[in-house]
Design a protein that fits this description.
Elements lengths: L1 H4 L4 E8 L5 E9 L4 H14 L7 E4 L3 H10 L4 E4 L1 H16 L3 H13 L3 H14 L6 H8 L6 H4 L10 H15 L5 H23 L10 H7 L4 H14 L2 E5 L5 E5 L7 E6 L4 E4 L3 H5 L4 H9 L21 E3 L10 H17 L3 H23 L13 E3 L2
Family: Belongs to the FHY3/FAR1 family.
GO biological process, one term: regulation of DNA-templated transcription
Organism: Gossypium mustelinum
């Protein structure tokens, strides 16, 4: 259905995540084919949009040409494949082949994915392959070759901002369905993108105003509520609640072994460095999401901390933080003549070019040439002429 709207071209979209855990729609791309060259061009366009700043981490599906393009164009970016892109493949690859054994295989596969130790993963993976007779299976070979991009024990050392969660995946799907579900032409698609983006901004404001209820009597919770966004506070709050079911045992070297009272999961090693209040847990939750885990929180509680050290409130999850900086002449000012003029020109161009394929091809060809000419001229101009601008919009951390 999507290809019928996009003149049989491939549709791709770029998403991020804001400090309320909501997807941010950065933009989309229409590609004539799925070649390495096309994917590389799309990534180059994204980098230009981001003013040359490459993402720290990028998530994608298993497409080999897209993976190669990411490796080529974003060599310093960690490439992660979400487990939610892998699980449907696992079902289609192995359910018929293994038959009645598939349920046992799937249970072991899920357990392997969640292991904290890479050494444990390597050992149990080999055991699983042997037990189910999958040593020569090409799909098992593929998954193993890509293990550093999807297995938790390998990827949790990289910052994912909870983009690999089920909730985030569902939010992205809902956004895309909202765009395509009611459209029958490319023109309607572009109009719907604008509507969806505006609704997304309104949703952001609604979430920011949500009241955050206390669920414990811990001073750490009260202090965190004053700093974190509702999304981040809720995540930390859940970890605080669960931490009460854990016990921390101090070791001779000052580290701690933290375990659930029913031993429903393995022990976690928490390293505490009192000199500068550093805490590190073997589960790597903070490194991955920027939210302290139940194990680290258990140690802070046992040490009678009433407030968490400031370093454990990342700017990404603070109430006052934002992925974009706006000056006093904000984009939210609907009377901003500069913004309205360019928005109107863009909408008109999209509307006229999406009526026929001939128009679309012509606009794409001529616009590329004209933009190249304009950019070359603009880049030759001084970067500062002393005149104040009415509108500024620049990326920030």
């Amino acid at each position: 259905m999507i290809r019928s709207i996009t003149y049989d071209m491939l549709f791709g979209a770029w998403f991020g995540i804001d400090n309320n855990g909501q997807p941010i729609f950065f933009g989309c791309v229409l590609l004539q084919d799925e070649t390495l060259r096309s994917f590389a061009w799309a990534i180059q366009t994204l980098i230009r949009f981001m003013k040359g700043r490459c993402p720290q981490t990028i998530l994608s599906d298993l497409d080999p040409r897209l993976r190669d393009a990411i490796t080529s164009e974003l060599p310093s970016t960690k490439h992660v494949t979400s487990i939610w892109n892998i699980l449907p493949k696992v079902s289609s690859w192995f359910s018929l082949q293994l038959g009645s054994q598939y349920a046992d295989f799937k249970s072991e596969f899920d357990a392997l994915y969640r292991l904290e130790s890479t050494e444990d993963f390597e050992l149990r993976w080999n055991q699983m392959v042997s037990i189910f007779g999958l040593g020569s299976d090409k799909h098992i070979t593929l998954l193993y070759s890509l293990r550093t991009s999807w297995v938790l024990s390998y990827v949790r050392v990289h910052f994912l901002a909870r983009m690999a969660t089920t909730a985030y995946s569902k939010s992205v799907d809902a956004f895309l369905k909202g765009i395509f579900g009611v459209q029958s032409c490319l023109r309607g698609f572009f109009e719907q993108v604008g509507i969806a983006a505006n609704l997304q901004n309104e949703r952001h404001q609604e979430i920011q105003c949500q009241y955050m209820h206390m669920k414990t009597c811990l001073p750490i919770e009260e202090h965190s509520r004053q700093i974190l966004t509702p999304f981040a506070f809720n995540a930390l709050q859940q970890e605080l609640i669960v931490s009460m079911q854990y016990a921390a045992s101090e070791m001779a070297n000052g580290s701690y072994l933290v375990r659930h009272f029913r031993k429903i999961d393995g022990e976690s090693l928490v390293i505490w460095i009192p000199e500068d209040e550093q805490i590190h847990c073997s589960c790597k939750e903070f490194e991955s999401s920027g939210i302290l885990c139940r194990h680290a929180l258990r140690v802070f509680i046992d040490k009678n901390y009433f407030q968490l050290p400031e370093k454990y409130f990342l700017s990404r999850w603070r109430r006052e933080s934002s992925l974009m900086f706006y000056d006093d002449h904000s984009v939210h000012d609907k009377d901003d003549e500069w913004f309205q003029e360019f928005q109107s020109l863009t909408e008109t161009l999209f509307a006229e070019s999406s009526i026929t394929k001939e128009r679309s091809d012509y606009i794409r060809r001529e616009l590329t040439k004209e933009l190249t000419r304009l950019l070359n001229e603009v880049r030759d101009m001084p970067e500062n002429d002393g005149a104040p601008m009415d509108f500024t919009l620049t990326p920030t951390d």
